[in-house]
Amino acid sequence: MKKDASQLIAILKSQFDDASFYTEPSDCWAYGYDNSRRHALPDAVVFASNHEDVVKLVKLCAQHSIPLIARGRGTNTTGAAIPINGGIVLSLERMQKIIEIDPQNRFMVVEPGVLNQNAQEAAQKMGLFWAPDPTSAPYSSIGGNIACGAAGPRSVKYGTTKDNVLGLTAVTGTGHTIHTGVYTTKGSVGYDLTRLMIGSEGTLGIVTSAILKLLPIPETKRTLRAFFSSMPSALSAVIKVMQQPIIPCGVEFMDGNAIRMVRNFSHPELPEKAQSMLIIEVDGSHSIIDHDLQAIVRAIQHPDLLEVNIARSEKEATELWKIRKSLSASLRSLSPHKINEDIIVPVSKVSEILEFTEVLSKQYEIQVVNFGHAGNGNIHVNFLVDPFDPIKGPQAKECLHQLFDKVLSLKGSLSGEHGVGIEKRDYIGKEINSDTLCLMKNIKAQFDPQNILNPGKIFPE
Amino acid sequence: MKKDASQLIAILKSQFDDASFYTEPSDCWAYGYDNSRRHALPDAVVFASNHEDVVKLVKLCAQHSIPLIARGRGTNTTGAAIPINGGIVLSLERMQKIIEIDPQNRFMVVEPGVLNQNAQEAAQKMGLFWAPDPTSAPYSSIGGNIACGAAGPRSVKYGTTKDNVLGLTAVTGTGHTIHTGVYTTKGSVGYDLTRLMIGSEGTLGIVTSAILKLLPIPETKRTLRAFFSSMPSALSAVIKVMQQPIIPCGVEFMDGNAIRMVRNFSHPELPEKAQSMLIIEVDGSHSIIDHDLQAIVRAIQHPDLLEVNIARSEKEATELWKIRKSLSASLRSLSPHKINEDIIVPVSKVSEILEFTEVLSKQYEIQVVNFGHAGNGNIHVNFLVDPFDPIKGPQAKECLHQLFDKVLSLKGSLSGEHGVGIEKRDYIGKEINSDTLCLMKNIKAQFDPQNILNPGKIFPE
Q1: What is the pLDDT of residues A150-195, one digit of tens each?
Q2: Using a CB-CB distance cutoff of 8 angstroms, which residues of chain B are in contact with residue A447?
Q3: A14, CA 20 to 30 Å: which among A176, B227, B249, B303?
Q4: Nearest CA of chain A to the CA of B105: how many Å?
């Protein structure tokens, strides 16, 4: 239920200068969206400039029991940044200082509004990188990456945000400041609240700075693209790749429907018979890279392998990636509304889950297009259907139920990297038993006893 | 304060068969120790055979408000397994089933009593390994490794227990069963309780099975040992090693006092001038290993480098490691009682903290011997003094205060891998601010509202 925020807003006006907040609906409008394409209008938008602003704002929201929804750049796909019950949106976009880079100790301290790409560029000057590389990297913020536990292709070798943040400073729902974690690559003092907060979608606290673990940039990289005339052959190749000791820094997959779509949209040259495509990348020293690449080429050999293209320059690699990058545009042009899922299963079960999506596709007469980070078993299942369509919408929902049940029966999870938000909160009970969910909610209540931080997200209402 | 457990014990007798528990003090005695060399007698020892036994026992202890101290093999050094207020020790040593190994998906499900080494041997048959390799691996259990967040030399490349456990099944202090995490290498559904529990020293729940992330065994390994005529030279070599892109799988350090001790005890051939020693290991493909080794050799060049020995076989490597492995025996023979610290600082600050230990050593007239995992900045500072000595004990305590303050001023942490237990609980407030500590205690209360799980550990009483 929406609460009256007018009293709080009057106080905010006295506490923050004019340039630090919006109350006009026309100004606030854009801050009610995220990439889930849902929308709800916030009562106000506040722009914090520093940690103290966040503390002040949280305390005021707590006093008035008004929801506070922290927001980076709104690239998340699950509705996690939507102010579903109104309240104050806290935009962290102005907190974009890189506070410290320490190349000797391979860490970087940043404010939450720093864009992933800007952090990468700053690190790169020191010969370092931060592992998480979501597709949204050029326009998503580190704070948002932390809130969602973002990943990307590189996580198959280097891990996700959860594996690459050393510590956090955050403000809890009571306005208290907590410091979690360490500046070092290990640490064993007290409970690990860092990773508890990563992926908690702004429900536990508001991160005001983060210590990022940096890694040395490998000397070079090779990119390989392979087409197969069947779907299981590509996925058995993935299993073989993941069982040998050279860990690639990317194992991306596209299914036959995805290839057909890109062929029709922009790339008529794609092989007619292709039923699946892999893009595999390896990185390392100049002197070993071709050896490692050959190990991958050996691992993917299969009678159904149609062709292998290898890029030997960055330009050639960009060319190979074009197919994968064209997919989103092709999908959008064909189906402006769609359900984009983010399931994950053990690598050896990917083939089975993809076959199951084909069964669902026939049963419900909904076209399905699959692609994703196959090396992690993380597949973005796209049902080309408007979820709000009065007839197809409920069918799609039933179809998702079946998909999720199957995923869980294969020891998978409902989300590999996008999180829960509001899109998946009604399904979370399928994956997490009620005692564990209850414990999570009780933990949330310790961080945020008044439930003002992003209420209605992750847990069913 | 010790509570009367006699009523509970009478009930336990009716619920568990005779072979499943001890109540005689002479039988219980051995279960009152850990490697902190402290001791307290438990009222009873119960041996669980399965998850249901644990649930039953926790519920009974909760009903009677009697402390329950879960125990693996007691190799921890912080007193975390000591039943300081009596109560029931739950030994998990009989729960040593390897439930599942899935080489295609690179995970393994084990009961908590499985020894680290037994898990490694089972994984090895599939060409895989589990990264955590504490020195205690042959006789420490996976459950204990999880409780302490164990690490070891390999963690400089492969991370610690926190980075290598995918999920847990555990029993909370109310007897509820929780399942955390996933079987996959990523996951983003709900709060990450897995890592919250790792390193929580049995205070949040009792792990009854764990999903371990396995990695492919590299084809081969090279070991290098280097002696330097000064301490800072070795540590500047470590910084250089950690800045170049080849990440070693071990960067171990010993200081001049440690070398002198081993020279006098068992290895007279060690170079007279040596003031520090590094052991560095690299692993990878046969075709690259010597290239990588040479990169390390280049990185450690320094005018103070006295000699470099390179092992090209496992036998030669064992020989190089002998110096490091002899250290514990030498230390014990010289000083049966000692304070073995486990500080960690950013890699570039190791030299400064070691110089500070020398200052403390002179100031308090306490001999100090330093060694550890320099690639992580994790140094085991050994003060050769009996902490219970009436005169030197209090001085040593003061000395620790100074050491810890210095560590924290350098952005370090009080423990890299041993944890807090009772040894460091009085110092935890130096590192973690009171609001964060308060939150941790409140989280504990959600898992264990009656504070029966390993009470008195981690937090000051």
Answers
A1: 999 999 999 999 999 999 999 999 999 999 999 999 999 999 999 9
A2: 439
A3: A176
A4: 6
